[in-house]
Amino acid sequence: MTSDTSALPGAPRFSEIRSSRPWSDVFVQGADGADIRLRVYEPAVRPSVTLVWAHGGSWTRGSIEGWHDACAALASLGTARIISVGYRLAPRWLHPTAVMDIAAATLWAQQTYRHKVLVGGDSAGGTLAAGVALWFRDNGLPLHGQVLAYPPLDPECAAASYRNSRSFPPRSLLLDAWGEYAGSHIDLRERLYLSPLHAAKLTGLCPVSLIVGAADPVRDDVEQFVQRLEKCSVPVDLEVSPAVAHGHFLDTSAGNPVHQWVQTRLGHPNNQPATTEGA
Fold it and tell me: Does residue 238 form part of some domain?
């Protein structure tokens, strides 16, 4: 089952704020009227930016709870408010439901907070965030930027890095996950907002920051995406790090290189609203 490719958040519904934790749960309305749970993490100081974050988990697993400690650790490092999205999972909910759930969360954040709002995610969540940015562009809506950690971008997993790398995740796992999320009986290249590599054009996208491990199987996907962005004059920066492994976002240690990188990208001068004029 899928949602419509529109996202109009309804009135938010707040749960009780737990005073011992700097976070609260909010429910916003998705495109099809369903309640989408968000967990909002406030930094120790007054926030200067909001990052809407989509968790990983191969589109079929993962949750706000499973990513709670990592998101709290990320929020503790700087002045960013982190919003973790409890989007609906495959295979019960097929594409583009998850993309539109995150779009609804991002619209709500823009309507709620006055400072800049970015969208991001790790692994499958990064793929979803990239789809959200495309949807914003196509609907003429501003977005300050995308912060994507090692997103898989090719449903066919055809690049050499998938076959040459012995690192997690294995190609077979990702192929199965893509099938559960998007279906396997149709041409996936025709699925709107499934992958930015399938988009006819990338012109007009908001700035993109990417990080991927040097031995990550999705590295070739990421580098191909960067090359296309550069050809379309989209502001983009890429960090390929031997210190980063797929799934590293979940590490809650103080020296997590993915968390440190996210914090630096939130203040990057490229993160300015993009316009779709002339795209």
Answer: yes
- Domains: count for the chain: 1
Q: Which positions ≥6 away from 166 have C-beta within 8 Å?
A: 215
Residue 161: CB partners within 8 Å, gap ≥ 6? 216, 217, 218, 219, 220, 221
Residue-number span of the structural domain to which 40 is assigned: 13-266
| Number of Cβ atoms within 10 Å of the Cβ of 76 | 15
- What is the rounded radius of gyration, in angstroms, for the C-alpha atoms of the chain? 17
277 lies in some domain: no
Give the mean pLDDT of 135-147.
98
- Phi and psi, residue 239, nearest 5°: -120, 120
Q: Note the pLDDT of residue 185.
A: 61
Residue 55 sits in a domain whose CATH number is 3.40.50.1820
Instruction: Identify the residue whose tokens are 């993962």.
Output: 62
Answer yes or no: is 272 within a domain.
Answer: no
Q: Residue 36 to residues 12, 81, 115: CA-CA distances in angstroms?
A: 10, 18, 23
For 52-109, the pLDDT digits (tens) are: 999 999 999 999 999 999 999 999 998 899 999 999 999 999 999 999 999 999 999 9
Position 8 in a domain: no
